[in-house]
From TrEMBL:
InterPro entries found in the cross-reference section: Mn/Fe_SOD, Mn/Fe_SOD_BS, Mn/Fe_SOD_C, Mn/Fe_SOD_N, Mn/Fe_SOD_N_sf, SOD_C_sf, TAT_signal
PANTHER family: 37S RIBOSOMAL PROTEIN S26, MITOCHONDRIAL (PTHR43595), SMALL RIBOSOMAL SUBUNIT PROTEIN MS42 (PTHR43595:SF2)
Pfam families reported for this sequence: Sod_Fe_C, Sod_Fe_N
Biological function: Destroys radicals which are normally produced within the cells and which are toxic to biological systems.
Entry protein name: Superoxide dismutase
Organism: Rhodopseudomonas telluris
Keyword Metal-binding assigned: yes
Domain Manganese/iron superoxide dismutase N-terminal: 37-123
Manganese/iron superoxide dismutase C-terminal domain location: 130-231
Keywords in alphabetical order: Metal-binding, Oxidoreductase, Signal
GO molecular function, one term: superoxide dismutase activity
Signal peptide: 1-21
Length: 242
């Protein structure tokens, strides 16, 4: 039998360790994903929003930050199964009914899940321009598209620290711009969310560093207006979930 070199012995040992570690890693990933909450997949490639949002930011934002909310929610739901059985808007609008021991965690993680689910949904490549009833509502309630974008960007820029800037919509279709800190969501006040932008630094820091204003301006190139229109109709019909 030929003598193995030190290099071959090390390679064989490394392969053996990797082979033993792989099942454990797969099991850990499966365990993290189990439960009533699941990470919604992106409907477009991570690089599809470049150069406005880079692929690496999308991968980390979606696969790490949002996944962390899902993992935490499933951990909460293990001992509190009703959390995964109730509609998200209902839970967020009635956080006082959530057990005190997990209330802050549910607020942060379920708010983050709702916010990000909406965020991935309303973005995409070649999103076009607002039209139809959405454009009419923007003209009527927000002073037209240019004023709306300027006011939305200003609100997002003034949000101190981490948070979100949203457009809320009533059952009558009336629009308004609002901001929330951290992962709070207007649904916590019983409102409906049409669209919104994430102004946490992890949403833009790799490309824009501290230039939040540049990110806010560029983000409009990623808005999928057909999805916004779908959410507008669902909000008026009372069928909008998150």
């Amino acid at each position: 039998m030929p003598m193995l070199s030190r290099r071959h012995v090390m390679m064989a040992a490394t392969g053996a360790v990797a082979a033993m570690a792989a099942p454990r890693l797969a099991f850990a990933q499966a365990a993290a994903a189990s439960g009533p909450f699941t990470l919604p997949p992106l409907t477009y490639p991570a690089a599809a929003l470049e150069p406005h949002i880079d692929a690496r930011t999308m991968e980390i934002h979606h696969g790490k930050h949002h996944q962390a909310f899902i993992t935490n929610l499933n951990a909460f739901a293990k001992d509190n199964p009703k959390l995964g059985e109730m509609p998200v808007p209902e839970v967020l609008a009635n956080l006082g009914n959530v057990p005190e021991a997990i209330r802050t965690g549910v607020r942060n993680n379920l708010g983050g899940h709702a916010n990000h689910t909406m965020f991935w949904q309303i973005m995409g490549p070649n999103g076009g321009k607002p039209s139809g009833e959405v454009l009419a509502a923007i003209d009527r309630d927000l002073g037209g598209i240019e004023k709306f974008q300027a006011d939305f960007n200003a609100a997002g820029g003034k949000q101190f620290g981490s948070g979100w800037v949203f457009v809320t919509v009533t059952k009558d279709g009336k629009l308004a711009i609002e901001t929330r800190p951290n992962q709070d969501n207007p649904m916590m006040d019983g409102k409906r969310v049409l669209m919104g932008n994430d102004v946490w630094e992890h949403a833009y820091y790799l490309n824009y560093q501290n230039r939040r204003a540049d990110y806010l301006k560029a983000w409009w190139n990623t808005v999928n207006w057909s999805k916004v229109a779908e959410r507008y109709e669902a909000a008026k019909a009372g069928t909008l979930t998150i």
